[in-house]
Design brief:
The protein has helices spanning 9-16, 44-49, 129-145, 179-186, 205-218, 289-312, 318-336, 338-346, and strands at residues 36-42, 58-65, 71-80, 96-100, 115-119, 152-161, 169-176, 189-191, 238-242, 248-252. With 351 residues, the protein is α+β, with helices and mostly antiparallel strands. It is globular and about 60 Å long.
């Protein structure tokens, strides 16, 4: 897991070239895929029980754990985030957002960070770790397709309660690159449309076709490239980046309610003709056949890299690893079968 993103620069440049202006050096935190050992001390019970619409930040500490017992300790503000995973009937531990004082982090592996999303375990049971591993793999598969995606960093997390004496909990987790730091890296700008949405014609076509196929690959229908939920801004589980030619490139995130992850709480929108998140439904917009052909060729080109990521980058057990691999291979079987491709993608697109 120590391979660096730069090793994929040649492939990524094919898609990146028409989108970016002047890119910046990546943050130290996301240069490596080596798991980072982190201890978070915080009021874990209060964070877990906060179900409010606008949760408060609470004080905590982050420690980066180095070789030989060396530690770098920083103050941090912590709050729960998300929707479904904050439901007490779904998860007993929420995903978190960390807010640092940037000046404290100068010269460390967290240099440049301000706010970070931390993807956590849903429940304390070790068997629930499979879902965190599988969501991490979804991000990594997207990274294999394009640099215009959110980078992730795997973590060996230790959680310590600041409220009472309890045994520390050790679990896998991962950081997701902040949208503003991603925009800086890519030489783009985050775009937040006034009025809550955009027209599909404003989307950058090549990148959007790849993103729509990726959502189909992982079995995701819980997103929108052009609109938010009724009480949210644009766009649902997507960040828009403004490109130099005046269009918008969607970068998706939040991949837990998908077929590739398939957690027990995942349900599909009742308005869709699906019985399970494991069923795929293409939700992309209709595009010029040449655009779609180029997007499909990109997937075929990175197929070996994707399978290598699945095979090597998490400690999934053999059964779960095979399940993820087979789910991805089913996507490629659709691409390779003209009749299936026509029926499930080309004729299923949205006008």
């Amino acid at each position: 897991m120590s391979r660096r993103y730069a090793q994929r620069a040649g492939l990524a440049a094919i898609l990146l070239a028409p989108l970016t202006a002047v890119a910046a050096a990546p943050d130290p935190l996301f240069e490596s895929l080596e798991p980072l050992s982190v201890r978070l001390t915080a009021p874990l019970r209060a964070l877990s029980q906060d179900r409010s619409d606008d949760p408060d930040y609470r004080p905590g500490q982050i420690a980066l754990l180095g070789a030989g017992g060396a530690e770098q300790v920083f103050d941090v503000q912590v709050r729960p985030r998300g929707r479904s995973r904050r439901d007490k009937e779904v998860c007993t531990f929420p995903p978190l957002r960390l807010n640092f004082r940037k000046s404290d982090l100068d010269g460390t592996e967290l240099d440049g960070q301000d706010k970070l999303k931390l993807v956590t375990h849903c429940r304390r049971s070790p068997r629930h770790l499979r879902y965190v591993y599988r969501e991490y793999l979804a991000y990594r598969l997207l990274n294999a397709l394009t640099e215009v995606s959110f980078r992730v960093r795997p973590l060996r997390m230790t959680y310590v309660s600041s409220e009472r004496e309890t045994r520390p909990t050790e679990r896998f987790g991962f950081f997701i690159e902040d949208k503003d730091r991603a925009a800086r890296r890519l030489g783009l700008e985050v775009f937040e449309p006034a009025g809550g949405g955009i027209d599909p014609g404003q989307l950058e076509p090549d990148h959007t076709a790849v993103m729509a196929l990726f959502q189909f690959l992982i079995g995701n229908t819980d997103f929108s490239f052009i609109a938010g939920l009724p009480d949210d801004d644009c766009c649902h589980n997507v960040v828009l980046m403004a490109t130099p030619d005046g269009r918008y490139a969607p970068i998706p995130y939040d991949f837990d309610i998908t077929g590739i992850v398939n957690p027990p709480y995942a349900v599909v929108d009742y308005r869709l003709p699906l019985h399970s998140v494991r069923q795929r439904l293409y939700r992309g917009f209709c595009r010029d056949p040449a655009v779609m052909s180029k997007a499909m060729d990109r997937f075929r080109a990175v197929r070996p890299a994707m399978l290598q990521i699945i095979a090597t980058e998490t400690p999934l057990d053999d059964r779960n690893r095979a399940e993820v691999r087979n789910y991805v291979e089913d996507f490629f079987a659709i691409l390779d079968d003209p009749d299936e491709r026509r029926r499930k993608i080309e004729q299923a697109c949205r006008d």
